[in-house]
Amino acid sequence: MAFWNKPDPDKPKQTGFEKYGEKYINENFLQDVDPKYRDMLNRIGFSENFIMSAPSFTSNDTKTLYHELDVIKMQNTILIRQNDEIIKELKKLNRPKSE
Questions:
Q1: Can you say whether residue 61 is alpha, beta or left, with left for phi > 0 and alpha for psi between -120 and 50 degrees?
Q2: Which residues contact 49 (CB under 8 A, 6 or more apart)?
Q3: Angle, alpha carbons 49-55-59 (nearest 5°)
Q4: Which residues fall within 8 angstroms of residue 84, CB to CB, at 6 or more apart?
Q5: For residues 18 and 62, what is the distance between their CA atoms, to the nearest angstrom?
Q6: 3-state class (DSSP) for residue 80
Q7: What is the pLDDT of residues 1-51, one digit of tens each?
Q8: Which residues contact 66 (CB under 8 A, 6 or more apart)?
Q9: Is the CB of residue 26 less than 8 Å from the CB of residue 49?
Q10: What's the pLDDT tens digit per position in 63-78?
Q11: What is the Cα–Cα distance from 87 to 85, expressed in whole angstroms?
Q12: Do the beta carbons of residue 13 and residue 7 sit within 8 Å?
């Protein structure tokens, strides 16, 4: 921010998706994932913000569903990381060898 809380014209404005996406990316160590997936990661981070704002659950069924969703979310994060590593390794293998 510049003087008198005016937005800095040189700094790009972050959208809601980007703000929560950066938090999600940093918390899950996804900084090195290919930038073309950044929009997807921003949206995941944005939706995660609302999962934690749910009211307290009263039924055990709802608690179980919530925890299952949390486990699936963690598994997806691991898969994103692993798939990105596999893609990078395949790209290395497919580069023409310079002689």
A1: alpha
A2: 20
A3: 125
A4: 32, 33, 34, 37
A5: 30
A6: helix
A7: 444 555 555 655 566 678 888 888 888 888 888 888 888 888 888 877 766
A8: 54, 57
A9: no
A10: 788 778 888 888 888 8
A11: 5
A12: yes
Spatial separation of the C-alpha atoms in residues 96 and 3, rounded to whole Å: 53
Token readout for 79 is 């898969």
Identify the pLDDT of residue 52. 59
Joined tokens for residue 13? 């404005």
The residue written with tokens 């040189």 in the block is 10
- Structure token pair of residue 16: 């809601």
pTM score: 0.58
